[in-house]
Structure formats: structure tokens, C-alpha cells
């Protein structure tokens, strides 16, 4: 009798409506969904492909799941080191068997490396991305990036945290201007030098919201952006390094005057404790998902 009741209970789970299963599956992490629930029975396998489950692919959270399983984490690190395995490409290959082209948001792990062709690999499988966060270390050729962003015609928000590590180079914003006409939100964490500021001003005229949170900036470059980005409405300069070092008060006055045309101009108050911590890599890794402009939070 007990065995019969157990069989009936299992059967009830199998016959749950797919929409109900999708609500339940939304509570699971990616590993439990793809490696666990989807393999239980045919109806659960089909429900795991529900488009509503795959609006966002966050590879950073996938990394946290793996860290929680210590043996798997250790084996993955050894495998990656010995055999040069690209773990994020492997993850995307597997995840897109379930998501297909449904995802609209794609977030890479901030501290990961991409090899040449990785971003194009993602763009070919996920052409409908509207919000994208790229890793800080991009080992991508100009040709690969040109082809990748050529497929992301719907891209509206880009978050790029770029440091000039060995073998990496400055991100060329021309590729965005030539391919992403719907791009209105840009967050850049890095060193805003003259070359980058000039590229932004020349190629990103559609930008309405710009965050330079935690970047190294100068008054000249910020003034260049405010003056030349005709559609700019919101600018975030919180926790930036360099503005407080400006000694030319005429430049500071000009910056304040230029910023008065914006709908919103975000800066830090004096004595901001966060500004004292921005040199810490762990602080950037922890907070680059947050921003005073809600469009950049993820």
C-alpha cells in the first residue's frame, strides 16, 4: 500500500502543468536545474526549456554555485589550469541547449578571462541580448568584437570594467557606434584617458545614461563627455579617483556649470568612506554589480 501511494505521488509530480513547474524551477540555481530537475522525467525536461526561466544568464552566479561545492571547485581549477579549458564557454554551450535564444541579459564573471572569439561565441548563440556585462580581461581581436556586436542589434545597456592587464588593450568604442544604435546606457569602470573619452564622444551619441563609478578620471575628459554627448541626461561620478585632485578651480567651475544641463549629476559627498576603498580589487568585484543608476544594477 505504501509503495502504491509513493508511485501515485511520483506520478502527480510528473503531471504537474509546465507553467507551475516553471515557477518552481525559477527558484533553483542553474546547476540544479540543468543537471538535476531536467533529468527527472520527460515532462520536467520539457519544462526546463521554458523561456521564462532563461531571461538572464549570470555566469558570475554560476561561479558561486561551483565554489559552494569544494571538490568540484578544486577539480575545475585543476582541469582549467592543466588543459586550458575555457569554463565560461563550456558553461554557455551547455546552458544554451536549454535557453536557446531566449536570454535578454548576459553577465560574465567580472574577473574572468575571455579568449579571442569567446564574445562572438556568446553573440552567435544569444543574439537577443539587451543588457550585457563584459569581464575585465578581454583577449579579443577587433574583428571578433566587430562580428559579435554586429549580432547584438538590440543591445541597450553595456557594462564594461576594463583594466589594462598584460596582453589586453583598450576597448575600442567605435565598434559600438557602428553596430549598436539602440545603446543608451553605458557603464565604464577603468581609466578614462583622452583617447577613450574622445572615442565615447565621437561614436556614442545615443548614450543617455553614463556611469563612471569607481573609475580614474580627470576634469578635462569628463567635461569633454558632458559637452559632446548631446543626449546625455544622467551622469554618475561616484567613487571616482582624480576629481578631488584637481587644483584648477576654473576647470572645476566649468565642469559644474556644464553638468547643470543634465537631469541628474551624481557625485560623492566629502569624506565618502567608499572612496577610500576603491583601490581594493575585492571592493570592485563586490560592488560593480551595484550603481546609483538603476539601469546598471544586476
TrEMBL record:
Top-level lineage group: Eukaryota
InterPro entries according to UniProt: F-box-like_dom_sf, LRR_dom_sf
Coiled-coil region(s): none
Designated name of the protein: F-box domain-containing protein
Taxonomic source organism: Microthlaspi erraticum
